[in-house]
User: What shape does this take?
Amino acid sequence: MTGNVQDLYLELLKAVLTNTLDSNEPVLDDGPLFIHRFTQHYINGNALTMVPLARMNNLQQCVVDVIDRKIAGDFIEAGVWRGGLTIFMRAVLEACGETERCVWVADSFEGLPVPDAEKYPLEAAAHAGPVMTKSFDHFSCSLDQVKENFSKFHLLDDRVHFIKGWFKDTLPIAPIQRLAIIRLDGDYFESTMEGLVNLYPKLSPGGFIIIDDYGEDEWTYCRQAVDQYRASNQIDAPLIEVDSKCFYWQKPIANS
Ligand SMILES: C[S@@+](CC[C@H](N)C(=O)[O-])C[C@H]1O[C@@H](n2cnc3c(N)ncnc32)[C@H](O)[C@@H]1O
Assistant: This one.
């Protein structure tokens, strides 16, 4: 549990990382203006994460909860863009006086992979479209830039581990022992499935897995990857809604 000064630090950090100190975050209710506002606020702005505050609050709750309940394991985000959520995970460890756990930061650091157009036509169309190519630059951000972002907050140390490359190559051999939090934000079917197959078996019972794009049905097949993995591994822990796009579940303590 954090105290008042720690809470104030984390609230301030969330506002800085989401670029909401003095401007409001874009919301889906912005309608046709949403993409424009999203691009201005996050991509062209100073935000270090593009997730809404509600999802940062969800991450904070999950992290504090596993610390309080002493659920063993490190934290990982697979798909980090500018690194904001992993910076935040490292900050919560600091605020909670946690000295053992590490944060794993996994990304190509060169943006989204090209989806197979035959298997994943919606993703391929979005990937090749003007928004992804011109406005979002496929969410590309270099490893050096992400490290610099950690440094700005004095949170780059030996408890932050970077895993650079495509998930299909890196996650199967990543030297991770045990995880208490998995956050998957790789958008596409294969990126999500690679995260599930390689990381979920390492999640401690009682830990959390958060799927950022579960509800992004207009341009990804993330939901299908999650549903398929859950069905084939007999996972029936309830999926809990953070907002209309982001969902998470807790790995059951018994029979997990
Ligand atoms: C939407 S962004 C992540 C947003 C980030 N979580 C945040 O807080 O702003 C998606 C990220 O996933 C990465 N990514 C997606 N699929 C990947 C894969 N198969 N291998 C490596 N990186 C991948 C991209 O490089 C990009 O940084």
Residues 49-51, 77, 79-81, 84-85, 107-108, 111-113, 139, 166-167, 185-188, 191 surround S-adenosylmethionine (CB under 6 Å).
